[in-house]
Design goal:
Blueprint: H1 2-10, H2 19-32, H3 40-55, H4 60-85, E1 97-109, E2 119-129, E3 143-147, E4 161-169, H5 182-189, E5 191-197, E6 202-204, H6 215-230, H7 233-244, H8 252-260, H9 271-290, H10 293-298, H11 301-319, H12 324-341, H13 349-362, H14 370-397, H15 402-432, E7 434-435, H16 439-464, H17 471-492, E8 499-500, H18 506-521, H19 531-539, E9 549-551, E10 558-562, E11 565-569, H20 575-586, E12 590-592, E13 605-607, E14 615-620, E15 623-628, H21 641-644, E16 649-652, E17 665-666, H22 668-674, E18 677-682, E19 685-690, H23 691-695, H24 716-719
Parallel strand pairs: 3-5, 11-12, 15-16, 16-17
Antiparallel strand pairs: 1-2, 1-4, 2-3, 4-5, 4-6, 7-8, 9-10, 9-18, 10-11, 13-14, 14-15, 18-19
Pfam families: Competence, DUF4131
Subcellular location: Cell membrane
Protein name: DUF4131 domain-containing protein
């Protein structure tokens, strides 16, 4: 015990860095519960921590225990509070409905094919339904995202009141227990569901009240048009993304190439782009100020340049559409500038800890989001890495010869790509189900091109646009963009550019991130202990057992794991989404199930036996599961008892009705009540897990059939 206390005392300056980690633990504990807890448990924990802090303040163990308990309780309470501040999920009309709502945002979507026009999706707030049931009721407290018809040419912008006829859909249940939860994401984003317009939209009210043609929107559209006039094709589309935040014109094939090469982050305006812009502005401002002797001797040039960089960053984020990842990066940039102005270390772990704590207390659900996990993992790895490598880099820099500076700069860019890429690799595996093994090579070339060529030329073009002299700068920017696009396509074409990874268990990702925190937040040699949980978390997707069979939440699609393939059958409205999600979760290519009378090469799956069409038998580890993968009679055709005899489970895409009454059954009614089902066939038995068992009874888990809170008219006495 004395040895541990000695180590902690040696690391006492690092102990406050673990407070946001304790807050994150409290948030994670809340989201892992299967039933909605009462806040009294967290309040009791917080009250317990106070006397531990007070009476144990003179001892290191007491201070650490009390602080950790208090932070865990505060994180738990923050997550509970955010959940219960959100309005309930409403019941959406099940048929096409006419609705009116105010446009909150307009998203331009990529064309569905090469010869199709680009689509648009509007986010509507204050939605009212024109039905007899919804007459007189208040507007929805949540937003709706509706895709408009591709040939709808009405000019729409934020602030417009629209009227349209649409078919709506509530957020879907997870396609398999443990996969992405769209209902939870919609709950914390304030969304009620999605839909598609069945006709052209019309504007309600006078055109003079519109906000869509605001100065900012006109400016962004004008900048994008002038960029595309000089740089047609994909080069202009990417330049418009970097300078105006309009990425809709990038072809789907090029998006896939950027994803396969590990360069997808260049297409999303976020921390990298903001850092480049602010760095350029700070460099120009500081050199400009110090070039005047009178200013250099009397003014705080470093602080003024930092403030100028922040102003430039605010303008850039505003110009590119104020997307959420960019806004989060801007908040962290504000902390960096504050540290520079007050004489603190800008790139410090304490600044990162303050930013993490601020985000976790204001919106605890961000802990489960990809941008939060990737950005903080990357920044934490970069700060810790450069803390260790600062000495060798200074020695390499030497007396500052030009060639040494160049070598140091290239080395730092390579280290940045390597550290950030390795820190975020398991996060990418968990959320996107793949590994890009050549990401370091691609980023080693693309990031310097973006920082030293593309963005400086683009910012110069923005400055020259009012004078109509932007052509040379845009031409130079286009050459750099063309090189990056060529690089992405080339790397994406290499063998094994994308390696599919099975679904990562939640404990695996949490274990890796904890090990990363242990490695980065401590400064002594015992930090290396964190490598062990990082390796276990990294290997977790390849160690846990995937289900043998899955039935999707709509009951229409059945997936069977068979060797190196994923056999799928069935039809439903969401089949395309379910097939894509299950293919990512299993990391196996999709193949069709054998027809009646056929079987798989392994012999585990045989279909159409005993003259029963659409019925298959899956035999594995001494267990047998009867699968009805196709049934046009809606369960009216009874399966003979001779086929059901000896089966451990009966799964059917239709109602079971009177078939196999003596066998445990998962049919369409069970899926309607419980969500998707996953089945494991082991020597000890057949284990069945439903999404309801996995997710539990939480506020964001919708009722069976994706039903929400009914939309009822207000009572007469409530209207007065």
């Amino acid at each position: 015990m004395s040895r541990l206390q000695t180590l902690l005392l040696e690391e006492r300056h690092r102990l406050p860095l673990w407070l946001p980690v304790a807050v994150a633990v409290g948030v994670l504990v809340y989201f892992q519960l299967h039933h909605e807890p009462l806040p009294w448990a967290a309040l009791a924990l917080a009250l317990i921590s106070l006397p531990v802090l007070v009476f144990g303040w003179h001892r290191l163990g007491g201070r650490l225990t009390g602080s950790a308990l208090l932070c865990v309780a505060l994180g738990f309470l923050a997550a509970w509070s955010e959940t219960h501040r959100a309005p309930p999920m409403p019941e959406l009309p099940r048929r096409a409905v006419i609705l009116t709502g105010r446009v909150q945002a307009v998203d331009v979507l990529p064309a569905r094919s090469d010869d199709a026009t680009m689509g648009r999706r509007v986010t509507l707030a204050g939605v009212r339904f024109e039905t007899w049931l919804d007459e007189g009721m208040p507007p929805l407290r949540r937003t709706l995202r509706v895709r408009l018809k591709d040939d709808d040419a009405l000019l729409i912008g934020p602030g417009d009141e629209l009227r349209l006829r649409a078919l709506l859909e509530a957020p879907s249940f997870p396609v398999m227990p443990g996969t992405r939860d769209l209902q939870r994401e919609a709950w914390f984003r304030g969304e009620a569901g999605t839909g598609r317009a069945l006709g052209f939209v019309s504007r309600v009210g006078e055109e003079g009240n519109r906000l869509s043609l605001s100065t900012l929107e006109r400016l962004r559209e004008a900048v994008s048009s002038r960029i595309r006039a000089v740089l047609p094709g994909v080069d202009g589309a990417m330049a418009s993304t970097l300078l105006a935040g309009i990425s809709s014109a990038i072809p789907a094939t090029d998006r896939e190439a950027f994803a396969a090469s590990g360069l997808a982050h260049l297409l999303a305006v976020a921390g990298l782009h903001l850092g480049i812009v602010m760095g350029l502005v700070v460099t120009v401002a500081r050199y400009g100020l110090t070039s005047v002797e009178w200013m250099a001797l009397r003014w705080p040039c470093k602080e003024i340049a930092a403030v100028c960089g922040l102003v430039g960053g605010v303008l850039y984020v505003t110009m590119t559409g104020m997307h959420l990842p960019a806004l989060r990066s801007l908040m962290m940039a504000c902390l960096v500038v504050l540290a520079l102005v007050t004489g603190r270390n800008a790139a410090s772990m304490r600044g990162l800890a303050v930013a993490a704590a601020a985000l976790l207390f204001t919106g605890p659900s961000v802990l489960l989001d990809v941008p939060f996990q990737m950005s903080f993992a990357a920044v934490m790895a970069l700060i810790a890495g450069y803390e260790i490598l600062r000495g060798p880099l200074l020695k390499l820099h030497g007396e500052g010869q030009i060639w040494r500076r160049f070598v140091v700069h290239v080395t730092m860019l390579a280290l940045t790509s390597l550290l950030a890429g390795l820190a975020t690799l398991p996060v990418s595996m968990a959320h996107f189900g793949e590994i890009q093994p050549f990401f370091v090579v691609a980023n080693l070339v693309a990031v310097p091109l973006t920082a030293l060529w593309v963005m400086p030329a683009g910012l110069l073009a923005m400055l020259l646009m009012p004078l109509h002299l932007e052509y040379p700068a845009l031409f130079a920017m286009g050459e750099g963009v063309h090189a990056i696009v060529w690089l992405a396509r080339t790397v994406a074409g290499w063998p094994a550019a994308r390696i599919a990874v099975p679904m990562t268990p939640g404990w695996g990702l949490a274990l890796f991130l904890f090990g990363l925190c242990w490695l980065c937040l401590w400064s002594r040699r015992w930090r290396l202990v964190g490598i062990l949980p990082m390796l276990i978390g990294f290997a977790s997707p390849f160690c846990h057992t995937l289900p043998d069979a899955v039935i999707a939440p709509d009951g229409g699609v059945v997936a069977i794991r068979e060797g190196g393939n994923l056999l799928m059958t069935g039809k439903s409205r969401d089949a395309w989404f379910e097939r894509r999600s299950l293919e990512q979760a299993f990391a196996r290519p999709i193949a069709d199930t054998p027809g009646d009378g056929g079987e798989t090469p392994s012999g585990d799956l045989a279909c159409g036996e005993d003259g029963a069409p659409g019925v298959c038998v899956l035999t594995r580890n001494g267990r047998s599961v009867l699968l009805r993968v196709e049934d046009r009679s809606d369960g009216e055709t009874v399966i003979p008892d001779t086929i059901c005899s000896g089966m451990d489970l009966f799964m059917t895409v239709s109602p079971a009705r009177t078939s196999c009454r003596t066998v445990p059954t998962v049919d369409r009614f069970a899926v309607w009540r419980e969500g998707a089902f996953a089945v494991w066939m082991t020597s000890s038995g057949v284990h069945v897990l439903s999404d309801r068992q996995w997710s539990g009874d939480r506020p964001w888990v919708m009722r069976p059939g994706r039903h929400g809170v009914p939309n009822l008219p207000m009572a007469p006495e409530d209207e007065r």
